[in-house]
Amino acid sequence: MEFTEVLIRAAGFVAIILLGYVLRRIEFFKEDDFHVLAKISLKITLPASIIANFANKEVSVSMLGISFLGLMGGVLYMTVMYLMNVRSSREQQAFDVLNIAGYNIGNFTMPFAQSFLGPTGVVVTSIFDTGNALVCLGGAYSLASIIKGEDTGEQKGSSFMQVVRTLVKSVPFDTYMIMICLGLLHAHVPMAVTSVAGIIGNANAFMAMLMIGVGFKLSSNREQIGTIVRILAVRYGMAIMLAFGFFLLLPIELEYRQTLALLVFSPIASAAPAFTADLKGDIGLSSAVNSLSIVISIVCIVAVLGIVM
After folding, report:
1. Which residues are registered as beta bridge partners of 268?
2. Global pTM?
3. How far is residue 253's CA from residue 246's CA, in Å, rounded to a whole number?
4. Sequence-separated (6 or more) residues with CB below 8 Å from residue 127
5. Are 217 and 290 in contact (CB under 8 A)?
6. CB contact at 8 A, 138 and 162
7. DSSP secondary structure letter of residue 266
8. Going by C-beta distance under 8 Å and a sequence separation of 6 or more, which residues neighbour residue 30?
9. How many Å apart are CA 78 and CA 135, to the nearest integer?
10. Which of 112, 188, 287, 308 has the fewest CB within 10 Å, making it most exposed?
């Protein structure tokens, strides 16, 4: 794919994000509409896209190691950030650990994989995201709550069950698991199912980008700039190292390495502000970090596509 074509498609994604932002600013969409769009994307168009692109693709047991990479990426971010904040307050440690971990793949990077990397990219992305889900859908929150000191021994058990319940209730995660199992078993998905899923799944890129635009916000002050810069510098500095490591060192097919190099530049997990609110943290600061990570990720992903494609 020519770099000019990459830029044009990426510019289209950016335009949809800007459209969502402008429509919210002129009150075509209300702030609460973000949650409606998120439900449509997460529970309808994204699962359909996964089914359409994953259907009838064989999955080898060796590919499941990609899921481990998705998990360990989040663990690595949290570990480094915790060690950097050993002398900080527990509240600061918990905030940083929670707001650096996890990748926003379903709502953000999946459309890029779907548009630029094709079915193979979607399969690799889906497997990677199953490991990532363990971090962004509860693992990071549980660790942050323990760091902050809000977890007793009894609560630790309930935190683990909360992670399990969150994953089971996640429609994309359930879809990932079902399609991976079908791929491992070499099971055939009926054409009627894939046809309908394809029609619905084609809307996923538009819905996901529009939703990001509607929910985009920056609310911060000068005192918070240091925290924002620290988290984002560590996040994307490590992402660069991981991208080089995955692309140059892993003994796997080129398409897999291209996808992994793209995935590590995904924005910070979109659930982070909600979990920050549950921990009674600074929601505005969390939203600012999250929104800025989207801007940086767009630039990074376009650059990666231009280099590896």
Report:
1. 103
2. 0.79
3. 11
4. 59, 63, 64, 66, 67, 70, 176, 180
5. no
6. yes
7. P
8. 24
9. 10
10. 188
